[in-house]
Amino acid sequence: MGITSFYFLCFFAILLIVYYSIPRKFQWGFLLLGSVAYCLLAGQGVLVFYPLVSVGACYMGTRLLDMAPAEAEKRRKCILAVTILVNIGILFALKYVNFFINTLDGVVQLFGGPDRLISGVDFLVPLGVSFYTFSLLGYVIDVYYGLAKPQKNFGRLALYGLYFPNLISGPILKYREHAAQFFAPHDFDYKQVTQGLQRMVWGFFKKLVIAERLGVLVNTVYGDYEGYPGAYIWVATVCYAFQLYTDFSGCMDIVLGLSQSLGIALPENFQTPFFAKSVAEYWRRWHITLGVWMKDYVFYPLLRSKFFTNLNQSLRKKFGKKRGKQYATFAAMFVLWLTVGIWHGGDWKFVIGSGLLHWFYIVMEELLAPPFARLNERLHVNGEGRFLSGVRILRTFFLVCVGDLFFRAASVGDAFSMLGWAVRVWNPQVLLDGSLLQLGLDGIETAVAVFSLLLLWVVSLKQRKEPVREYIAKKPLVVRWIMWYALLFAVILLGYYGPGYSASEFIYQGF
Questions:
Q1: Could you please report the per-residue DSSP string of 11-37?
Q2: Cα dihedral 377, 379, 382, 387 in deg (nearest 10)
């Protein structure tokens, strides 16, 4: 039961009505039942077992931490380690065991071994396993360090771990910042409900009108890149960057809007990432909650660890205080981005496309920033001027597109092969001779896609200044209704859905 389906909308409508009709003290329990029901209806019902085991492990672990005396540090560390290992073990078994098997087989083949040393396994994977696992691990770590109080009610912790909007594609939560509102009573608030529904409509527009439409062109080229070399690959890669953004951010709009209508505010996951002037800034705007989690629970602990403390001191002695500290930071960043890449999936294309390639980008940005600043100063050029800012935005977008090419390609080998076909063949004429209309979208469909992207661009520009929904809310009643109904009918008339068509799953739903 995907969240763009008619059945899900019926499920949500019933849940919303009952939620505000029952006594407020029962609302959190009803949300838990609704979340379990969603897990049972969304696919293989048995998969709800996995998040329940993770919740159970975290519940027991934090209870034991709470009972352990503060001076029993070894016992507390042991409890923390076991709790983390149980959750990471489940995640590893479900998502990464084949990654390591395939990597081992590849290494064996390089040394003349058999094509298949170990057979892979095929597990059914529950919704949002990486998202709820990281949310729960953050909770356990915060309890260990005294940043959060352990939850003594198993049902309430289960709601935090299984909250159904959050299971689809995140965002990743922090218990100490977001959990309390799950258990608080919520009165019906007309503004919250209507704004939540408005945001859901905008999310449906992104997903069904833009992402699904661009996916047709992307699938055509990436499915036969040797037949569509050169400019075709670049166009498809740019389209995929927009498809990935509208798919993921559209999902977030639906999820956050749905949750807002229930009175629960989930953290934002995007902040106009395509206006970023550097790759580092891009990642502060893209999948924000993953970046925050990685910094809080991977990067900063690494820098404080004994190994990196010693490495920092050693590099400072060898290269100087400033440069040595920078090199030690780069080493910790390598581990960080390796982890980010692995989080995205058990395949080297994710490790490169969403991880190590971006590490390389950011390191080069840091190393090249001082000489470029000196060059701008000598030439009396304003590095923050409109022209150079535009150039930096386009440069960042191009670098991100190269990473997205690895992300979308069938394999690392295909990604390098596509890059070869993209640079070897010079055929810019296909941009103007109508050849692009042979990629699955005719003239009308292409016009719809272009107009929709222009609308997205205008809204993104406005969003940088003030929330668009607040801006629309200031308009006269007639204007507000015209704008929202126009958007709704655009989804109804132009969206890819209905009998005989099944909208693809959200791209990040598999993570």
A1: HHHHHHHHHTTS-GGGHHHHHHHHHHH
A2: -150
In 10 A of CB 201, how many CB atoms? 18
φ and ψ at residue 286, rounded to 5 degrees: -110, 130
Q: Range with the lowest mean pLDDT among 6-15, 95-104, 186-195?
A: 95-104
The answer for residues whose C-beta is within 8 angstroms of residue 180's C-beta and 6 or more apart is none
> Contact, 335 vs 294, CB < 8 A?
no
Cβ(161)–Cβ(54) under 8 Å?
A: yes
Q: Tell me the C-alpha distance between 418 and 442, whole Å.
A: 25
- Read off φ and ψ for residue 439, nearest 5 degrees: -100, 15
What is the pLDDT at residue 117? Answer: 63
5-14: which pairs have CB atoms within 8 A and are 24 or more residues apart? Answer: 5/503, 7/41, 11/37, 11/38, 11/41, 12/258
Q: Assess whether pLDDT exceeds 80 at residue 103.
A: no
Which residues contact residue 472 at a Cβ distance below 8 angstroms, ignoring those fewer than 6 apart? 480, 483, 484
Q: Give the number of C-alpha atoms closer than 13 A to the C-alpha of residue 479, restricted to the C-beta side.
A: 7
75: burial class by Cβ within 10 Å (0-12, 13-18, 19+)? middle
Q: What is the mean pLDDT of residues 119-125?
A: 67
| CB-CB contact of 198 with 256 (8 Å) | no
Residue 283 Cα to chain centre, angstroms: 11
| Distance, CA of 129 to CA of 93 (rounded, Å) | 11
The string of DSSP letters for 307-323 reads HHHHHHHHHHHHH-HHH
CA distance 224 to 334: 34
Measured CA distances, 46 to 42, 124, 297, 506 (Å) = 11, 9, 31, 22
| Whether the predicted pLDDT of 108 surpasses 80 | no
Residue 315 amino acid letter: L
Amino acid at 77: K
Prediction pTM value? 0.92
Residue of 288, 282, 283, 340 lying closest to 130 (CA atoms)? 340
Who's near 279: CB < 8 A, 6+ residues apart? Answer: 358, 361, 362, 365, 396, 399, 400
- Closest by alpha carbon to 218, among 436, 492, 497, 503? 436
Separation of CA 144 from chain center: 27
Eight-class DSSP state of 286: B
Separation CA 192–CA 200 (nearest Å): 12
Please, are residues 399 and 280 in contact by the beta-carbon 8 Å criterion?
no
Task: Tell me, rounded to whole angstroms, the distance of Cα 217 from its chain centroid.
Answer: 23
| Residue pLDDT, tens place only, 130-186 | 899 999 999 999 999 999 999 999 999 999 999 998 888 889 999 999 999 999 999
> Which runs of consecutive H residues, i.e. helices, occur in 355-442?
357-378, 386-408, 412-424
